[in-house]
Design a protein that fits this description.
alpha+beta, Jelly Rolls, Arc Repressor Mutant, subunit A, seven-stranded mixed beta sheet, four-stranded antiparallel beta sheet, 12 helices, 42% helix
């Protein structure tokens, strides 16, 4: 049966779990060396459905020269650990640039949108592991694979270190370098059936080394990062970019995994508006921007583009928020005057 990539939501904009098509194409052309195993549409050898299903993708690429491709903005269906063993690489997480150098370790959670390359990747050797812990939003419960040997207390500590902190880039130590190197060696030199036990061992070692590294850093932990309020805050922050979609209260609550009354209460606490009032505010702000940017468009066209069902209703709510009708707003705009 054909497998589709996992789907993620940012507002109501749909993204797919990255399938690394540019990387696959570069490997097919011989522009770099690629060794990888993965489930679904991730690159490399396709793993059987029942083979360590939490290990969504694992691999290593070795680019001997600067490339003509990069990995655009995406999320993954798990927490992703990457290690730049050699070279330099441009990296972006949550719209912030992080230039990576030899020894850089990155940790990105499933809800963190990130890209690799600016826009292209440089020469370097990168090792990665994407491990699905069952979460897509920060307020969900992490479910670690049962084959991890960590004690419940250690898993709780590791979960806290990773979920109450969203710093994406760290400097790896010698022990982490050794475990990542072991992962790369397993994928480069073995077929999956021959390496299952050693792969489990290497992932256990890597996670324990990561926990010890983060604990030594004594990083400040913020419990708010894994709360339901934080999940709603992230949704509301993204909503202005997707305000034109066909939202209603039930759909917005569903995106946050909440009942309509729960979502409404969080929205009022964060915005001092009901969800529909906040959505209308986002749509009016979108319309105000388009009225200036697209002076050739009619008021009706702008109204429908921004998710309003009629130009009359659009004009009414626009006036109530902006203090003037859409036509007058265009005339008063500094850009229009210029």
């Amino acid at each position: 049966m054909h497998e589709a990539p996992a789907i993620f939501q940012d507002g109501e904009c749909t993204y797919f779990a990255d399938t690394c098509e540019p990387l696959k194409n570069a490997a097919d052309k011989g522009e770099l060396h690629l060794h990888a195993w993965g489930h679904a549409l991730y690159p490399g050898i396709r793993l059987p459905h029942d083979y360590l299903p939490a290990v969504r993708s694992i691999g290593v690429w070795d680019a001997p020269a600067a490339q003509s491709w990069g990995l655009d903005l995406h999320c993954n269906e798990g927490i992703e650990f990457t290690y730049l063993q050699r070279g330099k690489l441009a990296f972006e997480v949550d719209a912030k640039q992080w230039p990576l150098h030899k020894g850089a370790l990155t940790v990105t959670r499933p809800w963190q949108f990130h890209r690799v390359g600016a826009p292209h990747i440089g020469a370097g050797r990168l090792i990665w592991l994407i491990l699905d812990v069952g979460v897509r939003r920060p307020n969900q419960t992490w479910r670690w694979p049962e084959w991890l040997v960590c004690s419940p207390a250690e898993l709780h500590k590791l979960t806290q270190l990773l979920s109450h902190n969203e710093q994406p880039v760290w400097q790896a130590d010698a022990e982490l370098d050794s475990w990542f190197d072991k992962l790369a060696e397993l994928v480069e030199e073995n077929d999956p059936p021959e390496a299952e036990s050693r792969l489990k061992l290497a992932i256990n070692g890597l996670l324990l080394a990561l926990m010890e590294l983060l604990a030594r850093e004594q990083i400040p932990l913020d419990e708010y990062l894994s709360t339901t309020e934080r999940a709603v805050q992230m949704f509301l922050h993204a909503l202005p970019q997707h305000a034109a979609s066909n939202w209603n209260l039930a759909a917005m609550a569903h995106q946050c995994g909440l009942s309509r009354s729960q979502f409404s209460e969080y929205c009022r606490q964060l915005t001092n508006m009901t969800p529909m009032q906040y959505l209308t505010q986002c749509r009016v702000e979108m319309a105000a921007r388009l009225l200036v940017e697209r002076p050739e468009a009619s008021i009706t066209e702008i109204a429908y583009t921004c998710g309003f069902n009629s130009s009359q209703y659009f004009a009414t709510v626009f006036r109530s928020i902006k203090g003037c009708p859409p036509s007058a707003f265009v005339a008063q705009s500094p850009v229009a005057v210029l």
